[in-house]
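INTERNAL AUDIT FORM
Audit reference: QA-55
Scope: verify that the stored structure record matches its stored sequence.
Auditor: D.O.
Record contents follow.
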Amino acid sequence: MNHMRLACRPGCAACCTAPSISSPIPGMPQGKPAGVPCVQLDDQLRCKIFGQPERPAVCRQLQASLDMCGPSDDQGAFARIYLTRLEDLTRPDGPH
């Protein structure tokens, strides 16, 4: 496993779309379901509340890495597959 941290890749937003978030997000008080883009994404697919205290802890803790994002700048395809699979494996009712 390569846990080397990466910079967030422009145009990706996989980590703001693929996972479910159960904690409140400004504009999404119930959180968000898996596969739904966060309302805090701007037109460039960047987080509008990055670095702000209202950003959910799960978002602050998730770090881009080579394991999650893959070796190439593919606009998030690798990361979406990785995160969707992780979401499925960690469902309370088990993987589907």
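Auditor finding: record pair retrieved intact. The chain has a mean pLDDT of 87.
Action required: none
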